[in-house]
Design brief:
homodimer; Four Helix Bundle (Hemerythrin (Met), subunit A); mainly alpha; three-stranded antiparallel β-sheet; 2 domains; Arc Repressor Mutant, subunit A; DNA-binding; 9 helices
Chain lengths: 214, 214
DNA sequence: TGTTGAGGATTGTTCAACAATATCCTAGCC
DNA sequence: GGCTAGGATATTGTTGAACAATCCTCAACA
């Protein structure tokens, strides 16, 4: 067993949350989930703690854990921190090894292939990979894991998106452009573009959220 | 019951770690500590989880929990992420409300007062507060809590510092200068100074660590 | 209509027993 | 002498249970 039981259960729950099987706001009953996944309450609670650390769920005393509901303020906040981490990556691009640059280009290609196939869900995943690769240019394990957590949170907001295509399509070309700027060493321009890019993306998500709740 | 047994034990362990009674790298035996603190292993494990969240200890599957030991690579990494977050704060300084700017100045004054009193331990705390205040200019709760965790980790490295005064004294004036640049709107200059500032601080810590291990 | 309180359901805490795993020690081999 | 295999031992992982504390529901009541 390479993974502990709690880690295994946490991974399963994470998948169920990200797939929408366990929707935002849903309460995770200890008794029900313990029965479904065939683990004791103690182990399940340990799994919950792992998810809490990823802030995929929130814990309310004596009330249990709930799948996180993303408020507009959360989206704004997440994009602020993303901007900080991805900017750090872009600024360190000059000192990053070739493998990390190649990884950035690879994610753009991945997104373009998925778009050509009409797999807009996959385009979304590739887009997240692209931004993770940008932050990875900073060569910092702590930045990497912080990015992973942020993007996992953000995935919760995507559930409210009506049309993945309408959201992701405009960014395909911008991702490619950004990757090209990094390749050619136009770091200052890349940094400026990244800022407006993230501002635009944030506004699109906030707009969609407002629509969904109206 | 205001505090659970686990919280009480966690506080006791935290004190023992910070006092050096439980040195970095030391394994926290469930059986031994359970006997000493007169709690069951399960309760002790709950206490461990609280310490893990503060990253005061690390958990290795089937091997137990160990008092965290900071490697030079960790210090380098922490400073990379600090640079990303504090730079984000400085760049957002123009849009930050007055109260946040006042908070920055207040921490500088706090440090100067402690230095005048010869309380170099307090100067160290004030310095951490200063950097937290810088990051806070970004107005992002997630950045704030990430900074808190980074600074808590860094505190472990301070244990290896032979002379708090020699480390902190040179930065008193630089903190004041940085605060002044922000007040007067010299954002670009503040950003540049912050970068070299953090590089210098990192090298000082790395040097002290190398000395301690030699 | 709003409030109060009993009760039932759920989580919080702790425990001790059993299973799974790592570590250490010894014997045998090169 | 140094090294590897494998079994004894020590330690952590997991479980189910018991009990306490808290929240929620819903009916009775002012």
């Amino acid at each position: 067993m390479a993974l502990s039981t709690a880690q295994r259960v946490a991974a399963a729950l994470r998948a169920r949350i990200e797939s929408g099987d366990l929707p935002p706001g849903h309460r995770l009953s200890e008794e029900a989930l313990g029965r479904e996944h065939e683990v004791s309450r103690n182990t399940l609670r340990e799994a919950f703690r792992l998810l809490i650390h990823d802030s995929l769920v929130v814990h309310l005393l004596n009330r249990g854990v709930f799948v996180r509901v993303l408020e507009p303020a959360d989206v704004t906040d997440i994009y602020r921190m993303r901007a900080a981490l991805e900017t750090a990556g872009v600024r360190a691009a000059a000192h990053a090894p070739r493998t990390l640059h190649d990884a950035v280009s690879a994610t753009v290609t991945e997104a373009e292939r998925a778009a050509a196939a009409g797999e807009w869900q996959q385009v979304g995943s590739a887009d997240l990979h692209f931004h993770r690769a940008l932050a990875a240019l900073a060569q910092s394990p702590r930045i990497d894991s912080a990015m992973d957590r942020l993007l996992a949170e953000l995935r919760l907001a995507f559930h409210e998106m009506p049309s993945p295509r309408r959201f992701h399509e405009p960014f395909l070309a911008r991702n490619r452009a950004l990757a090209k700027m990094l390749e050619s060493g136009e770091h200052a321009r890349a940094e400026a573009e990244l800022t407006t890019y993230l501002d635009d993306a944030r506004e699109l998500i906030l707009g969609a959220m407002k629509e969904a709740h109206a």
